Amino acid sequence: MSGTFSMKDTALVRKDRRPNVLLITCDQWRGECLSAAGHKVVRTPNADALAAEGVLFRQHYGGAAPCSPARACLYTGLYQMNNRVCRNGTPLDARHGNIALSARSLGYDPTLFGYTDVSPDPRTLAPGDPRLKSYEGVLPGFTVRQLLPEHQKPWLSWLKARGIDSGAGFPDIHRPADEHGGTTDSAVTNAPPVYSKHESPAAFLTGEFLRWLGEQERDTPWFAHLSFLSPHPPFIVPEPYNSMYDPAEGPAFHRAVSWQAEAECHPYLAYNLNLQERSNFRPGAEGKVRDWGDDDFRRIRALYYGMISEVDAQLGRIWQAVKAADAWDDTIVVLTSDHAEMMGDHYMLGKGGFFDGSYHIPLIVRDPRRRKAAGASVDRFTEAVDIAPTLLDLLGEETPPHLDGQSLKPFLDATEPDNWREAAHWEFDFRSIADGHAERHFGIGPRQCNLAVIRTKEFKYVHFGGGLPPLLFDLEQDRDELTNVAADPAYLPVRLELAERLLAWRAEHLDQSLALAELTEDGVVGHVAGLPPFQS
Question: Any coiled-coil ranges, and where (predicted)?
Fold first, then answer.
């Protein structure tokens, strides 16, 4: 059932019931890597088919990195400054609502396939609870149908049952097949893994969703969240996707003449370039990412493109199955990611820091009841915190005013919303509570290991804590973000304006859980946020 699914015009969702909701995240998918967005190399026919019936948001940005902080923004509708999930392993405060709890309060049974990377609030658990030993917990409100955390043990067991030797475990299962005999080649190749395209983690997770979908009653609305690991590293993919793209194809890398030149641009860049180990992206590889040559980075990028196409093929299976279940006309679909991927830009892989390459992510929203804007694309700035209020709005619920995001429904209705943001914002926290590495390196405290970004069409301003110098990029002259003009007197008015706008943004969005309420002689007036639902 793989391949492209051509979707035809559909009838409106029935008015006597709520729609189904299908929320799909593909981890570490870079925003421009969609053929619907005009990428000259990557082919994503099934994501494109969804965009043809929905709305493609071209300037969509994650709120934080890595996975746990990024997903906290998506699930809660709150910026990192309010949800306070700073790193993988930072607990999510139990007082915060989220989209799963809200959906449950509306009568859905939100069902998870994959993972949410949520660390539970330790104040709600006994000291010896095993859930306190992993950041890969489940977002409160979800029923788990198939958990698939990064160790991928359920998938490994499934492989074993199919006769595939999965004894290597994670991450070694993702080495090229010819390395499993004990020979390790540190060079980057496109050799496939031991599993086929029908046996990949994405194929396994899709199969579990399709089985569950077949059990659903036609007249009972459902809410499903598929959380795919692809195209997250390790960078390896089965045939034919491993050779689908020529490493020589693709845009030029955005970077300075050398990694040493990059490191001189800012103390944080020097620190981050020294941290990145090849083994985090290709199991068994030795050395620093920064020392890979252009040919290696291009081969990795070709594999990354192949991983995107592999997960896109799984999207085609999903579209077909929802259609076959006679549910397509009744289903809202949201396709997005948590954060993006540097993919060789600035001699880096992975995510974090402040570059667009880490935060520009895809977003396609399709609501069968809203056909006016079908096939449209939006170039306004949208953010991960917009997903929760959008889904609530599409389900007929008032968006709680304490949320930081804004509903995207006006764009789906082909109208221009009032007072829409003129910039994107994101945050990154590089504290290391467990070992204090960053704190020692910079000589600052954990509260100071952070940065905040305001990005307009013309400029990007990055403000660091702990006295680290700021950054300012003139994006009209410097799309590659290579020249810091923060200290240039000619740009001083711009720097001051953006610093003031960043400060105003933070002041406006400080925690509003109780600040929008007032006790009066007539009782509570205004809005009180609580668990669940979002609204008081």
Answer: none
Residue partners of 309: CB distance under 8 A and separation at least 6: 42, 43, 44, 241, 244
Which backbone phi and psi does 56 adopt, to 5 degrees? -100, 125
Query: Using an 8 Å Cβ cutoff, are 372 and 74 in contact?
Result: no
414 and 467 co-located in one domain? no
Tell me the per-residue pLDDT of 404-462, one tens digit each, with 9 for 90 and over. Answer: 999 999 999 999 898 999 999 999 999 999 999 999 999 999 999 999 999 999 999 99
| pTM, rounded to two decimals | 0.94
pLDDT of residue 179: 73
* pLDDT at residue 187, as a whole number: 78
Indicate whether 437 belongs to any domain: yes
Backbone dihedral angles phi then psi of residue 292, each to the nearest 5 degrees: -65, 145
Contacts of 465 (CB under 8 A, 6+ apart): 444, 447, 448, 449, 450, 451
User: Is position 33 annotated as part of the catalytic site?
Assistant: no
Does residue 211 surpass a pLDDT of 60?
yes
Cβ(308)–Cβ(44) below 8 Å:
yes
Residue 535 counted as domain residue: no
Q: Is the preceding peptide bond at 234 cis, omega within 30 degrees of 0? A: yes
- For residues 324 and 397, state if they share a domain: yes
From the list 120, 149, 310, 146, the residue with the least C-alpha distance to 224 is: 146
Q: 293 lies in which domain range?
A: 20-421
- Domain identity same for 75 and 123: yes
Tell me the CATH number at 307: 3.40.720.10
Number of domains in the chain: 2
Note whether 332 and 454 are same-domain residues.
no
Q: Cite the beta strand spans of 163-277 per DSSP E.
A: 223-228
493 in the same domain as 385 = no
Q: How far apart, in whole angstroms, are the C-alpha atoms of residue 2 and residue 133?
A: 38
Given 401, 421, 441, which residue is the final one in a domain?
421
Q: In the listed set 370, 403, 421, which residue is the last one of a domain according to the structure?
A: 421
DSSP label at 156?
H
Structure tokens at 223: 């809410």
Instruction: Check 26, 67, 73, 449 and give the catalytic one.
Output: 67
Residues 383 and 504 in one domain: no
Share above pLDDT 90 across residues of the chain, in percent, rounded to a whole number: 91
Neighbours of 437 (CB within 10 A): 14
